[in-house]
Fold this sequence. Notes:
This protein has helices at residues 20-34, 58-63, 87-92, 106-111, 114-119, 138-152, 171-175, 178-188, 205-211, and strands at 9-14, 40-44, 66-69, 96-100, 123-128, 158-161, 192-197, 219-221. The protein is an alpha/beta fold.
Amino acid sequence: MNEGLVRPCTAVVGHYGSGKTNFAVNLAMTVRRLHPDRPVRIADLDTVNPYFRTADAAELLRDAGVEPLLPEFANTNVDIPMVPSALRAAIRSPGFTAVDVGGDDGAVALGMFRAELLAADAAVLFVVNRFRPLIATPEGARDCMEEIADACGLKPTALVNNSNLGSETTAEDVLSSVRYARECAEACSLPLFGHCYMPALVPGLPEAFREAGLEDEALFPMEQATRRLF
């Protein structure tokens, strides 16, 4: 992965269904793997209880040495929107803190921490997926990014290509999204973090990228860490 675009506090934002939670979880686990001496934590900033997606991966995160910061009622029938009270302290703490901004409305919740995030020089990674209708074009991705930036008062610092069709994803789906990702990054005036993929689904993707002359493109391997809702 492009570690230069990841900072000690990194928020992950994007349109609903872009796969940002799975990316945020994998990012936290990857940082922990690369830097086992650092404390690593992830906070879920969703605002509607049924969509606390990071809670799906709580056991996986703990097994990987990542501390999940979750609301008390996550994954229960008690619908009390709330954010983890420990987040402000986590932003200032040593190590790495990932913030999963679930749902488009989560950007408003992220704005509650704007001062702390600016003081921490936090990164904001904007996740796109060519197969989601509202962000299927660079113009749609740019409009989505601008809406998120307006809602939270924080401009994204890099763009992540997470174009996939879930379990039906093929190597060609990822390969064909490279141009889209480049054009999205240009439209949003952002550097490109890289292209996400799941080795379990497309094990030969690195070789396919090399054969296509794309060996300089950064790839970010992930595992499926959250339940699919659709």
